[in-house]
Specification:
With 370 residues, the protein is an alpha+beta fold. It is 28% helix and 25% strand. Strand 10 (178-179) and strand 11 form a beta hairpin. Bound molecules: zinc ion. Residues 192, 225, 331-332 line the site of zinc ion.
C-alpha cells in the first residue's frame, strides 16, 4: 500500500501545524460549536474584510475581491462527534446521548471531558467492565450506547451536581494531537470535519495581498453530523455563485477496507455521493488546474454518505457545487489519521481556483447541463 510519497520522512508542503492543532483541540460537538468557531475567527482575523454569523452559529469570513466578481464559498464544518449528558445516576455515573454517530465499539475505557454551563472542565472515563468471568457470548457482543456510562470519580449524584454538571452539558472526546513517526501522518480528534474548516481558513489567509476578482468566503458550518442543518442556513446567507464543501472521506489504505481513497493521494475530487452530483464543468476545471500545477488527484464516488454539498447545491435557485475530500483513517472515534500531502495539495488547488474565478468560468459551469 506504500508508495514513494508516503515513504518520505520529510514533512510535505507548507502545512500550518499550529493552526491544525488549534482547530482539532477546540471543543465543539454538533450543536455546540462555539469553541471551534472562536478558533476559526482567531485565524481569519486580519485576513478577511468581514466576519459574520448566521443564527445557528455558522461563521462566514469574507475576503472581498477587486469588484463585481462572483462569490466563491468554501464550506468546512466546525462540529465534531461527541455526546450530551442525558442523565446523572444516583450513583454519580453519567449516561449520555449521541451527538453524531459514535460506534460504541470504539468507546470503552476512553477519556472524555464534560464542560459545564460555567465552563468548568471535568474529566471522565467511559467505564469498561473487566473481562474476568465474563460469559463468552457477552464477550462477543458490542455494548449499546444506552448501556454505557461515564465515571467522573464522584461518590453520588449530589457530588456530580455540586461540580455543576447538568442535563444537556457537552461531552467531548479527549486525545492529544500527534505527528506520527513519519511526520506526514497527523493523528488527532475531530479531523471530521475541522480539517475542512482549517483548509477554508488557510485559503483566505493565502489570499492576503493577492489580487482576485471573486469575493472569497470561508464558511465554518455547524450541525452537519445530525443532518446537514447548518449548511442549509449558512448557504442561504452566503448566497454563493460557486461553492465547495470540504469534508473527510473514508481511507482505503487500511486492512479489509472496501471503500474510500488512500492517504497521500493529493486532491480527492468527489464526483458524487449520496447527497449530491457535483457540477461536471467544475470537476473538469479542478482537474485541469491540478494537471497544470502538477498536483496528483483521484476521484471519489461514495454513495453511503453525504456532505454539506447535499444542502448547499439546492439553496435558492441552485448553487454550482462539488465536494473535495480529505481521506482520514479511524474517523468517528477519539483519534483519526490524515496526511499532510492531501491537506497541502487541496489548499494549493483552492487558492489557485479562488484567484482565477471569473464570470466566464461561472457561466461555463452553469451551462454544463443546458
Ligand atoms: Zn462525521
Amino acid at each position: 500500500m506504500c508508495n514513494e510519497k508516503t515513504r518520505i520522512l520529510e514533512p510535505y508542503g507548507d502545512v500550518n501545524v499550529d493552526l491544525l492543532k488549534d482547530f482539532c483541540q477546540a471543543k465543539g460537538i454538533t450543536g455546540h460549536e462555539a469553541g471551534a468557531s472562536r478558533v476559526m475567527k482567531k485565524w481569519m482575523e486580519g485576513y478577511v474584510d468581514t466576519i459574520e454569523y448566521d443564527n445557528l452559529g455558522s461563521i462566514l469570513g469574507t475576503k472581498k475581491g477587486s469588484g463585481n466578481g462572483p462569490k466563491f464559498a468554501m464550506f468546512g464544518r466546525l462540529d465534531e462527534v461527541g455526546f450530551y449528558v442525558k442523565k446523572i445516576e444516583d450513583s454519580g455515573y453519567i449516561r449520555v446521548v449521541n451527538a453524531g454517530g459514535l460506534w460504541p465499539h470504539v468507546l470503552l475505557a476512553q477519556e472524555v471531558m464534560i464542560t459545564t454551563r460555567e465552563g468548568k472542565e471535568i474529566y471522565g472515563l467511559i467505564s469498561a467492565p473487566a473481562p474476568h468471568g465474563m460469559p463468552a457470548e457477552v464477550m462477543k457482543t458490542v455494548k449499546q450506547l444506552d448501556e454505557l456510562f461515564i465515571d467522573i470519580g464522584v461518590c453520588d449524584k449530589k457530588e456530580a451536581e455540586d461540580l455543576g454538571i447538568r442535563i444537556g452539558d457537552m461531552i467531548t472526546l479527549v486525545s492529544e494531537f500527534r505527528e506520527l513517526a513519519n511526520p506526514n501522518y497527523l493523528m488527532a480528534k475531530a479531523w471530521d470535519d475541522r480539517i475542512g474548516a482549517a483548509i477554508a481558513t488557510e485559503v483566505v489567509r493565502n489570499l492576503k495581498d493577492v489580487d482576485h476578482l471573486a469575493d472569497v468566503v470561508a464558511v465554518g458550518s455547524v450541525q452537519e453530523e445530525v443532518g446537514l442543518r447548518g449548511a442549509k442556513t449558512a448557504a442561504y446567507m452566503v448566497d454563493a455563485d460557486v461553492a465547495i464543501a470540504l469534508d473527510v472521506t473514508l481511507a482505503s489504505d487500511v486492512p479489509d477496507s472496501k471503500f474510500g481513497v488512500p492517504l497521500a493521494s493529493g486532491v480527492t475530487l468527489s464526483v458524487m455521493d449520496g447527497s449530491v452530483i457535483g457540477n461536471r464543468e467544475l470537476l473538469y476545471c479542478m482537474e485541469d488546474i491540478c494537471k497544470e500545477l502538477g498536483i496528483t488527484f483521484v476521484h471519489d464516488i461514495f454513495m453511503r454518505g453525504g456532505t454539506d454539498s447535499g444542502e448547499i447545491h439546492m439553496t435558492r435557485n441552485g448553487v454550482i457545487n462539488m465536494t473535495l475530500s480529505i481521506p482520514a483513517r479511524s474517523i468517528h472515534s477519539h483519534r483519526g489519521v490524515v496526511h499532510r500531502k492531501d491537506i497541502a495539495d487541496t489548499i494549493t488547488l483552492l487558492t489557485e481556483f479562488a484567484k482565477r474565478l471569473n464570470w466566464d468560468m461561472v457561466e461555463k459551469f452553469r451551462c454544463s447541463n443546458r
